[in-house]
Amino acid sequence: MSKIILYDIPSRLSPQAWAPNPWKARYVLNYKRLAYETHWVSYPDIAALWQKLGLSLLENEPNSTLPVISVPSKDGGPPSVIADSFKIALFLDREYPDTPRVLPPNTVALQAAFVQHVLATTFVAHLRPMILQRVLEKLDERGAEYFTRTRQKWYCPEGVSIKELCPPGSEKYKQQMEKLRAGLNTINGFLLSNGQLEDDAMSPLLENYPSSPLTSSPSGYRHWVMGTDGPTFADFCLGGILVWVRTVGGEGLEGPDGKGGNNDLWKNISTWNGGRWARFAKALEEWETIV
């Protein structure tokens, strides 16, 4: 039987995977242990891919993006083509009921709110000005031209280039870093509601459980976003953003501990909130295979 195809955006890095949204789908596929392969599509070729796969192009250019998956039919018919990581997760939960669910029925609305509002406004919005130039530097030539043209229009004030938006070392960059830290403090506060003690004094104790660094603390509290025994889609969305930082923030995928390399973004984030985000990244490592 043919494999599922995951369409992703390439970079000049090795491995190529860097984009946070395709990473959400990759995490889900790996977690469910589904056979798939990655096809790489540069930014300017995505619209043509959508047309080729029979997807309707949307009015706004950013909506015709990746990930997209193509899933072979079980009865020999045409493949199912799904765009958008949230819809992909719902589809895979439905079509492969014997695999772990990432969107349990009683959590769908809450996970959607966490991903579309909490992560978007308290993490991504603060991170974006600092990371756009780094993304640009990692793309192939055609992808970089497309990225510059579109992102400058969407995210930069008139007359300001991506490079000038938030230069590393500038006062604006320092202020943006503080906004990012405040945003992650907010997310940390929400996650503390699950009951875990997550502070500097607790960090050495939690590190004694490397085989399952986030599943449960000695007192039995849960550490995933939804307070569940295993990860859900919300965890993979948060993980996708962390991979984005760990990858394009430096010169390739940084280790979860943030040590070494020249990635100031990940070095900072990995130490905040008692090292929560480094442990979170470590917990997701087993589902970071790129095929």
From TrEMBL:
Transmembrane segments: none annotated. It comes from Serendipita indica (strain DSM 11827) (Root endophyte fungus). Residues 9-100 form the GST N-terminal domain. SUPFAM superfamilies: Thioredoxin-like (SSF52833). This is GST N-terminal domain-containing protein. Pfam families: GST_C_7, GST_N_2. InterPro entries: Glutathione_S-Trfase_N (IPR004045), GST_UstS-like_C (IPR054416), Thioredoxin-like_sf (IPR036249). It comes from the Eukaryota. Gene3D superfamilies: 1.20.1050.10, Glutaredoxin (3.40.30.10). Coiled coil: none annotated.
